Every structure is written in structure tokens, then in C-alpha cells.
Amino acid sequence: MTGEAASRAYLDLPGIQQRLVEEIQKVGKPMVVVLMNGRPLAITWINDHVPAILETWFLGHQTGHAVADVLFGDYNPSGKLPITFPRSVGQVPIFYSMKSTGRPMDPNNKYTSKYLDESNDPLYPFGYGISYTTFSYESPQLSSATITSKDTLIVSTRVTNTGSREGTEVVQFYVQDEVGSVTRPLKELKGFQRISLKPGESREVIFRLSQVDLSFFRKDMTFGSEPGKFNVFVGSNSRDVKRSTFELK
Fold this sequence. Notes:
By secondary structure, the protein is mainly beta. Helix content is 10%, strand content 29%. The protein is built from 3 helices and 13 strands; from the N terminus they run H-E-H-E-H-E-E-E-E-E-E-E-E-E-E-E.
């Protein structure tokens, strides 16, 4: 069901696997779905009816041991999705760094870019992943509200392990250029850090942003930055983030 020259028209579980999951769920016993797949799947029903899902992709000879360690709680997972999971195949292509449309989605305005029968949000955004503990983020603090092309902006945030187990979090740092001479992505990943925290422990995480990080191929095909307003985001994935704003002069 994967490999070269092996596209699929549908992203549901293949064959009678969906029916199998539904029949097992009816038994009412504690249940975990372990996925082994090479592409994102549309698993909205499983998300809504099964309390735990473990994505294993296609691993190696130690797959069984690794999966068992996670399921029995001997290892606290910290993986993050390197790709977006859609709710349905009709959302494809869907990715976190898409370009802004001329009519951004507004639930109160009929004539904006949205579906009649589906949410605009993905099932799982880029960078998503949870563990046996939880983390909280403070809003990012900036070294300055205004910078020039010669400056380096320091962005810091405080992350706290709010759960009862030690865990590792991948702190993600995104940037959005509000206006450009060509259309700009809604978000761009500019950095990430893995940190391990004990229950109740907090740590300050620092990112550095320079003019090079804000550069792109402009309308005249030269590579560089443009003055204007930018948003920076920090969080556990591309959707669940805290925001601050600065201006490039």
C-alpha cells in the first residue's frame, strides 16, 4: 500500500481494517490503535472513538520492543509528526506552510475559503505529538519590538512540565511575514529544541532570529528580506502556539 508509483485515491484504512477497529471498540475494553503506514491516513473515526493512537511508521528489527516499551509505559514518547494528517482526502494538499488565500477562512462570512462539509483544520498538524505528561508555554518574549537587518532578535519562552512524569518536549519556533512582494507562507519553521523536564520543572528556551532567517526570493528574484511586521510563534506544534510581534525596519 506504499512505495513508488503507489498513490491512493482514499486515505482511509484499507480493506476491512476500519470495520475490524469498530468491532473491537464495541467490546468496551481499554484499546490502543498502533498504526504502521508509510503515508498520512484519514482516521477521524479512530481519533473520535479510541483513547490512544501510536504512530510507528515503518521501523526496523526492534519495532516490537520499542512499541511494547511505549505501550507499557516503560518509555515516555516524544516524537512529533513531520507531516500533516488530514481529516479527509478532500483537504489534500494540506500543509502548515501553505500560502495565505485572498479570502482567509472566516466562519461568520460565507464568501471565504472554507468547506461546506469539513473543517479547514487538519486532524493532526505538522509537529504534533503527545506523551504521558503535559507541557505549558508562556508567551514568547522579544529582546526588541523593532530590529534592523543588522540586528539579531532574541526570542525566549518558558516551558513547564505540568504533568506527573518526566518527559521530553520538542519546542518549536515559527515565523510569519505578514506582507511581502510575493505571497508568503502562513508559518515557517525556523528552529526547534528538545528539552527534558522533570514534573513541575521549568526551563527558559531561547531562539535567535537574524535577517537571513527573514529572507526569501522577492518579486525581482533577488534573495533578501523586506521591511514590515512579523509574527513569531512558539509551541508544541504548528497549530498550538503562543504569538508575539516585531517590526523589521
